[in-house]
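Retry 2 of 3 after timeout on previous attempt. Resubmitting structure tokens to design endpoint.
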């Protein structure tokens, strides 16, 4: 296949080019391209710290790339510096000429140079990013609850643990949300820091998505001691069936909690709203309490089960030293990285008191690609399973089981954010 010569002007964008860049992003994501002056102004206010690039053909932006600083929580709660990648689009007229490859290789090299431990992204499609050393590291699950079948007590009138649930406004959400989210993300492996504008965008104060804004409902859970421990944003449709029966579906936009009591109470609340016969959970942690807090968990059908956060390890030593380990153990990993950014042979010596990781010449226990290490690092994937799939190689008999004992975790990682 012959590729057309590269005549494009590929570079960071200027501030004056932001409207054109936004049009290009929308076109690449198949959304109506019209951008208003207000949306440009709102978007501009949210981009501090972001690195924005565009490809220009005869002066028109035809492809986009953005990255920005982020923190990702490792197993055990230590945040590591991450290079978050987003808004990757190449117009259909300019696809498969290597634009993504050029940007990605440059951005990952810059991130490595800056000292970022990982790069992160949410992949639009599964096959795009593995070639650049990314691996799927968390998953998301969506359930649809058939409320009348759930077995929950229909007379429920609020939490029985002394806590309370209140419907609140967007103003209140912006007051209590950020602190709650900080508590959650510092404890949850796989969670990421949020940019300052996240809460403003979620409550309609800044609008740059091009979607019409409709105010959702917000409910907050406070513990018996008055501490905010949970927050949910949801919408409901308007569906009256034959026979004048309300058959509404409540759809969760997001739900965050810092305690199991808050998680249980908010799901119970959502499943006890009069008229609501279906609750769509939104993209949740695979470990969410939802299905099993129902007396009949089969009332919660899995409607989505897919990869979510993808990670690219840029520094194997710092990544493996940043996370915690529940048991003592050692492991020699032969990590292949075709880009030359992070490969090598490493000795990991770990215990619940800490870990050290050093380049070594000892013979390897396991040989794997850097993308497979990304899937293992947050504790979600199974080494034994990856070996069975032929995606990593045991160099010493029994090494895969030994590695699972060291790397897997009792709580699965989860990233609540789309970015
Ligand atoms: C983090 C995010 O923003 S996710 C959003 C990603 N964007 C989208 O999905 C929007 C629609 N798609 C696009 O904009 C583009 O097709 C992109 C960005 C996915 C790819 O950009 P391109 O410039 O065409 O990619 P590029 O030419 O560098 O391709 C590199 C390789 O990846 C492969 N590839 C690229 N996209 C895909 C895909 N969607 N599925 C499978 N393979 C792909 C190419 O075939 C090529 O393989 P080769 O080296 O074996 O020939």
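Retry 2 succeeded. Sequence:
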């Amino acid at each position: 296949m012959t590729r057309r010569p590269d005549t494009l002007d590929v570079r960071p964008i200027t501030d004056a080019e932001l409207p054109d860049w936004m049009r290009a992003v929308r076109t690449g994501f198949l959304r109506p391209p019209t951008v208003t002056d207000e949306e440009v102004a709102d978007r501009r206010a949210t981009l501090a710290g972001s690195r924005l690039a565009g490809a220009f053909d005869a002066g028109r932006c035809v492809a986009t790339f953005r990255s920005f600083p982020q923190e990702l929580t490792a197993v055990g709660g230590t945040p590591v510096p991450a290079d978050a990648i987003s808004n990757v689009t190449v117009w259909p007229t300019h696809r498969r000429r290597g634009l993504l490859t050029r940007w990605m290789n440059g951005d990952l090299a810059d991130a490595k140079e800056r000292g970022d431990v990982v790069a992160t992204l949410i992949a639009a499609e599964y096959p795009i990013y593995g070639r650049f050393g990314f691996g799927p590291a968390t998953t998301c699950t969506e359930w649809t609850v058939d409320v009348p079948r759930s077995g929950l007590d229909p007379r429920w009138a609020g939490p029985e643990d002394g806590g309370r649930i209140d419907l609140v406004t967007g103003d209140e959400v912006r007051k209590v949300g950020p602190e709650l989210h900080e508590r959650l993300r510092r404890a949850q492996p796989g969670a990421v820091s949020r940019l300052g504008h996240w809460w403003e965008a979620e409550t309609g104060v800044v609008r740059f998505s091009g979607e019409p804004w409709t105010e959702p409902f917000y409910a907050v859970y406070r513990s018996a001691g008055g501490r905010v421990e949970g927050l949910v944003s949801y919408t409901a449709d308007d569906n009256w069936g034959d026979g004048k029966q309300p058959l509404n579906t409540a759809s969760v936009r997001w739900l965050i909690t810092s305690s199991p009591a808050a998680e249980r109470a908010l799901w119970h609340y959502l499943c006890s709203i009069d008229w609501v016969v279906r609750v769509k959970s939104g993209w949740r942690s695979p470990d969410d309490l939802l299905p099993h807090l129902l007396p009949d968990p089969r009332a919660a059908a899995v409607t989505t089960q897919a990869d979510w956060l993808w990670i690219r390890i840029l520094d194997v030593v710092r990544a493996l030293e940043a996370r915690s380990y529940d048991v003592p153990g050692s492991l020699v990993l032969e990590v292949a990285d075709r880009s030359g950014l992070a490969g090598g042979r490493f000795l990991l010596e770990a215990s619940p008191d800490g870990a050290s990781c050093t380049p070594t010449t000892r013979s390897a226990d396991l040989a794997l690609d850097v993308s497979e290490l990304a899937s293992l690092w947050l504790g979600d994937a199974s080494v034994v399973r990856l070996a069975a799939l032929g995606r990593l190689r045991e160099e010493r008999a029994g090494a895969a089981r030994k590695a699972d004992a060291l790397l897997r975790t009792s709580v699965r990682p989860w990233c609540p954010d789309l970015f």
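Attempt log closed. The chain has a mean pLDDT of 96.
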